[in-house]
Amino acid sequence: MNHYIGVIGAGACPAPIYELARNIGFEIGKRGWILVCGGLKGVMEGAAKGCVEAGGMTVGILPGLDRTSANPHINIAVPTGLGDGRNLLIIRSSDAVVAVSGGYGTLSEIALALKVNKPVIGLDTWKNIPGVRYAGDPLEAVGLITALLP
Amino acid sequence: MNHYIGVIGAGACPAPIYELARNIGFEIGKRGWILVCGGLKGVMEGAAKGCVEAGGMTVGILPGLDRTSANPHINIAVPTGLGDGRNLLIIRSSDAVVAVSGGYGTLSEIALALKVNKPVIGLDTWKNIPGVRYAGDPLEAVGLITALLP
Amino acid sequence: MNHYIGVIGAGACPAPIYELARNIGFEIGKRGWILVCGGLKGVMEGAAKGCVEAGGMTVGILPGLDRTSANPHINIAVPTGLGDGRNLLIIRSSDAVVAVSGGYGTLSEIALALKVNKPVIGLDTWKNIPGVRYAGDPLEAVGLITALLP
Amino acid sequence: MNHYIGVIGAGACPAPIYELARNIGFEIGKRGWILVCGGLKGVMEGAAKGCVEAGGMTVGILPGLDRTSANPHINIAVPTGLGDGRNLLIIRSSDAVVAVSGGYGTLSEIALALKVNKPVIGLDTWKNIPGVRYAGDPLEAVGLITALLP
Known about the structure:
The first copy, chain A, is about 40% helix and about 20% strand. Chain A is α/β, with parallel strands linked by helices.
């Protein structure tokens, strides 16, 4: 069965973070892994764009009820209407998670993933969270994912 | 954007119902619609099998936390850990719903879909529910879906 | 431990249904049972009002995020932000359920309760649902609850 | 309308943390505020015990389906069956939150509360989270709550 890799991060971000997300998304797609994210803009869009550019498949688990809120690089859009409750579903749908930058929503997802012992890779994100494996770039991140996946 | 069609029904069913589900799944896949279901066996498996046989894409929104509980015809498996709470997510992820046979879980999904005015097509399922459009066979069901989709 | 009895029904109803809900709420409160409902108006308000008039305790599990949407007879208001997803929480919080009149939301709750084998008493509600125990009046309803509680 | 104060923290804790939770619970109950927690043992039990000792009311929002998993100081037990998904409901049900010690589950709750701009008071918990107001003892914590409540 395929691996599902979550990419979590804020819905608005500066261009360099968007590119970072796009690069990690590309590496995920290149490996044939399925990318799971929150489906909106910012880090979620960058990651989905990169994954699709590499020929990968993307799943967006949306906070609202409207599928059209998904960014254009989402292949499968799942509207939940749960608001921040969809954060937990992203974690439950992912075998490992990459946190890219991000705010409180991302921090909640990091914590929910660590709570259930899923690998969390950090890229330029919340610092000094015990349990997060910090990577310096996307290639190191996918290397950690490969090493840590069950 | 693609249409997402939910197929709802029991996790265990006699062979003729399985074939009915497979046939409706096939018609869904043939039209390029994305099939959403609960991801388990019975009607969900029959529908997913038919959809994949027609070259379509299937999404399984699972009640448990274990992705491997998905039947082998699910392309994208979303474990939720919400138990019956995932029924609502199936409805929220679907633009229209086809109910095939089914028990109380299916009845809850029919009601949740009608509550938010989504088209519900009934195939050999709970009878006399006002608002359900009853079809005699899979072709009539997809005809109704086509007519009722926004 | 106390019994928790759910009263489910529509958020708008004619005066006789409101009185029916108030009467069943009164009988629930009189017995020291905790009343669980959706916290809004109509049947939910009538039931909560009756329960409080009998000296009972009421819990309202709200669909939105705003506690002030609760009717004035709710002692404990739990905002969920889950929309119709809160229906399942009402069922999970109740040891038995009384359905009073109601529409599709109520039907979904009846089905979710029957799915997990919780007693469902029907008062002037959806007819001919196998598994529902239909009562002619509030006293018969509480008699059935007493008989069916674990 | 009454204030609802969440107390979040781990389900197992050393005796001094239990006493700290009991003291903050006592101050909450003394002020007539309703205490919301996860309903289990450890910090949740200490806080609920203190609140009831002060004559207050306690609500436990449980991860499982079994009401009897609640600690004996919970007045209103709400089984959700959502697992860690109930963390979000604790936050949505609280007007302000006090974090006492705690692990990843508590961190997720801190983040979810900060995400929606609810006051978060920290007592001997995750350090250096921007937005958390750290208190040195229960009296300072309730002082902060009083100052920060809308």
